[in-house]
Amino acid sequence: MKTSTYEADVFVQGLDMAIATHMDWTRRVLRCAVLRTSPGDDVLRPQAHAICRFGLWFTKERALFDLLDPEAAQRIDCAHRAMHEATRALCVRVLAGQPGQAADLDTFETAQGDLLNLLARVKTLVLTTIARRDPLTGLPMRFGIEHEFAHCRKEATRCGERLYVVMIDIDRFKWVNDTYGHPVGDTALRQFAAALKSSVREDEPLYRFGGEEFLALLRCSTPDCQHKASERILDVIRSSPVEVDPGLTLNLTATLGVASVGDQEDLASAIERADAALYEGKRAGRNRFVVAPDLFGMTG
């Protein structure tokens, strides 16, 4: 999900507005039941669910709902329609001087409860997702990486591949901040992250691990495949100069530490070995990748 903090704030504000609008809609339905006053076309018309304020907003934002949680999006649509249909049946009977049906009231209450619970779930999902995403680079941060690590390990095993933890550190980045200032450093980080993202496959998670350090989870069929993947990352970085000002271009490099994940190894252990390999690469001159010895003492 590539959504900025601003976009998320706008979406949450729209979500809160939509909920408040439907609560006012419920108040009008109650007045219809008690005072026998018309609740309006957005209740009584056959396609009222499509013209009420919530329905219009939900249609406009449906793509984002589907991106966040397609199952919840479908259930919201169904609950909203059911609520409208039950309410229309109740109000039509009341305005005709007839008592409402208990089944319609039960449907309304159930559907409204489901709708509000689902909207609260989506709101929590949006806020949680944004809280775990780095606003500078747009990459996910390290929180929750354990779940992705377990998933990637399972997929690698299923496909007969090996999972690699790759620690990536920008070379001499402190010098960039000290020489040009943190605003230039932020621009460099943003463009570096974009280049890094383009160098890995869509199914290979990439995280901003902290500062100028990043972490990738690569799945490779052989050690040679991993070597080529690491070289590809380095080549993309080398060929992606960072333009921070019209007259200022920085040619950044990075050092990679790579660790093949053992069958029973946990994430912390794999990161520790990848980190050790990274610092070995720094000591050896930077701008390279180093593969850590595996748990049996072999490099692969």
TrEMBL record:
What top-level class of enzyme does the UniProt entry assign? Answer: transferase
Query: Does this entry carry the keyword Nucleotidyltransferase?
Result: yes
Where does the chain cross the membrane?
none
The record's listing under Pfam families reads: GGDEF (PF00990)
Q: Does the keyword Transferase apply?
A: yes
Q: What is its EC number?
A: 2.7.7.65
Annotated GGDEF domain ranges read 161-294
The record ties this protein, via InterPro entries, to: Diguanylate_Cyclase, GGDEF_dom, Nucleotide_cyclase, Rev_trsase/Diguanyl_cyclase
* Gene Ontology molecular function, alphabetical: diguanylate cyclase activity
Question: Which keywords annotate this record?
Answer: Nucleotidyltransferase, Transferase
Mind telling me which NCBIfam families this protein's record contains? Answer: GGDEF
Q: What is this protein called?
A: Diguanylate cyclase YdeH
Native species of this protein? mine drainage metagenome
Lineage, broadest ranks: unclassified sequences, metagenomes, ecological metagenomes
- Name of the gene this protein is made from: ydeH_7
